[in-house]
Amino acid sequence: MTAGPADAVLVAAARKGDKTAFAELVDRHYPLLLTMCRRAVIDPHMAGDAAQEAVLDAMLGIDRLRDPDRFGPWLAGIGLNVCRRMLHRRIRAGWSLDAMLDAGWTAEPVDPGAGPDELTVAAHLVAVVRTAVRALPPGQQAAATLYYLDGLTCGEVAEHLGTSVGAVKARLHKARATLRRQLAPGWKEPAIMSTTDQLPMSMRIRDVRATEQAAERRHVVVLTTDDGTQNLMIWIGSAEALALARTLEGVQLPRPSVYHLTAALLQAAGRRLAETRITALTDQVIYAQTVLDDGAVVDARPSDALNLALLADAPIHVDPAVLQADQRADDHEDPTDYPMDARAILNAAT
């Protein structure tokens, strides 16, 4: 099997206007994008629309990609943001635009499952965005109002404004850039989704730790959020903990471990690990999945999935419900309960 050009090479070409290069990037990473969108919004039609919008956003914003080698995760992240925006629009879709634009608008939700808290936060969201939208140039203001506040599709907006779909998408892109600059410094978009709709949280492996008692030693891997404010500790076996410690400390083995072998087999097959998911916590058992770049999903033990993610430098996404359940658990522990870090685990193994 002959591998195609590296992502970084294709990104460089796409930035110079090479449409074929961008199409190859999309073909390569679209399965993962669609899988992420389907998981986020459930509705397959909405997921397809979200994936297509994400591709458009990526094409228009490819110059913002900081690491060209990570086009796939970047595209998937755009897809999740689009899904979040669509879920917000779904809550607002039944509201009267005319009433909303008046000083004292009232909500008329079409979804009977939307509770008072959701509607209150959504009202705040609309009020803040409405003010920013009114400051946009006329063409962008009209497109953004119809698309984001009234929930029309790009085709419907184009018909309403008497222009093309491409022109509408260009206006929306410019409007998003302006709104991002205006809203990002002082306003954080409220989370208006229920727990089951929340999008996965990005986490990384902070350390692998163990208790000091050799006879009854217990091991955990510690995941932390990007801002370091939340931790998730997962019990793992001694062999898996040692493998993580070796990778974290950069220890080279004379012969490949089973995780190195798995990574090598994936590479030989022209595949790579796209992400590791921590999906559920049930009866004190944590469940995980590995996701390949073609969208294939494989159930795995967390210890194995995390070892592969660390070797492949793949993103780790945790269902927020897992973190919430872990925080509520009666036996919730802290990393300080496990004094031995990765280096100490290695020293104890020699």
UniProtKB/TrEMBL annotation:
GO molecular function: DNA binding; nuclease activity; sigma factor activity
Classification via Gene3D superfamilies: 1.10.1740.10, Bifunctional nuclease domain, Winged helix-like DNA-binding domain superfamily/Winged helix DNA-binding domain
One GO process term, biological-process aspect: DNA-templated transcription initiation
Keyword Transcription regulation listed: yes
Signal peptide limits: none
Keywords carried by this UniProt record: DNA-binding, Sigma factor, Transcription, Transcription regulation
Family statement: Belongs to the sigma-70 factor family. ECF subfamily.
Name listed for the protein in its UniProt record: RNA polymerase sigma factor (Sigma-70 family)
Species name: Kribbella caucasensis
